[in-house]
Amino acid sequence: MKNFFSNEVRFSGDSIKSCIGFIDLVDSTKNTLTMDNLGHVRMYYSKFINSISAIVKSYGGKVIKNIGDCILFYFPKTSDNKNEKAFKEAIECSLKILDSRYAVNQELSKQQLPPFSYKISMDYGVLNLALVGDYSQVDLFGSTINFCSKINSSSLSAHNEIIIGDKFYRILNSFPNIATTYNFINHGECKITETFGYSTYGIKKVNKSSIDEDDNNSNTSPLRKKILGSATHHLIETQSKKDLSFHIHNKNNNKRRVILVDDEKDILFTYESFLKDNGYEIITFTDSYNALNYIKDLSNFDNLLVTLDIRMKNLNGFQLHQQIKSIDPTINILFITALDILDELLIIVPGLSKEQIMRKPIDKKEFTNTVKKLLK
């Protein structure tokens, strides 16, 4: 007997990083329940799907699927997190969808159909790939999509507004031109689990005419200073929250980066001395909370390895590992511990391999080779 499911979905094991979006058609179930004509129901949903798909395509995006009255789409070009144009297109796409709603609603009114109202959420992160059907179509799944979906369905998401997740916000705010073109409004934390909240932001285009008017009235416009300084202010504010408790090299996001976390400074000095001649950017922390806050504020997580001790004050190694993986599951982790608990670690920490655990005291050659292998 043929196994139906074995030919339907194949999880490729591959993943990408990209910007995704959810568009929910608000109150569609309630609206369609009032329609006696099945043709009107089909027209209503077809107009929604086709109008959104056309706009997404025009901005370089791809619609993956519709889930009931919700459309999932993504922007492949944003896999390059230095491609400012691609990220701006992603924002403009959602703004265009909101703007086009008025013309679409006029057409719906002529057909005596209820108007469209949207909830739009966007985020950035790791997307796992699967092939469906005859393997000619791509499906996406994973924590980034789950987060974005939760944002969309949360009470923080208002009708006909765009709300974005913290990862997407941090990347957008790293581009000065984008930071001066759009306003980001803190919407609070979306509760992902009982213990984990995820920061969200509203996004709107800056009113340029207001800025120009302010400039004409003052040599140094307060509004322009606020907007132009938003990216710099964010970095200063972020830095003030951190206590880089040991030593930090000059930042270069193109380098392979190693974050060393241990509550003993002497041990950190030893680890750093082992790695300093290998061309890494090295950041060290004696406080696990400071390390976590630093990682949260990074604009990208490529070429990044974090070494963790297990016995630490505040957050222990297990807790810090869990928090880091919730930020981005692709971040490389290396446990360095004096505890003889290799087998227990492999059971307790999902996805951990023997190569990601080292016993203290560590050998310099073994340590440098392990770091090199994890950052290859």
Summarize the structure.
This protein has 376 residues and is α/β, with parallel strands linked by helices. It has helices at 28-33, 38-58, 84-110, 143-153, 166-172, 176-181, 208-217, 222-228, 230-240, 265-275, 288-296, 317-327, 342-348, 364-374; strands spanning 9-25, 62-67, 70-75, 118-132, 137-141, 162-165, 182-191, 197-205, 257-261, 281-285, 304-308, 332-337, 357-359.
Radius of gyration: 24 Å
Question: How does the overall form come out from the CA principal axes?
Answer: elongated
Q: Biggest β-sheet, characterized?
A: 8 strands, mixed
Unreliable sequence segments: 1-7, 209-252
Please name the fourth-level CATH homologous superfamily of the largest domain. Answer: Nucleotide cyclase, GGDEF domain
| Quaternary structure | single chain
Overall domain count:
2
The level 1 CATH classification of the largest domain is Alpha Beta
Helix content range:
40-55%
Structural class: alpha/beta
Total of DSSP H or I helical runs spanning 4+ residues? 14
CA-to-CA gap between the ends?
45 Å
Order of helices and strands: EHHEEHEEHEHHEEHHHEHEHEHEHEH
CATH architecture of the largest domain: 2-Layer Sandwich
Compute the number of strand runs: 13
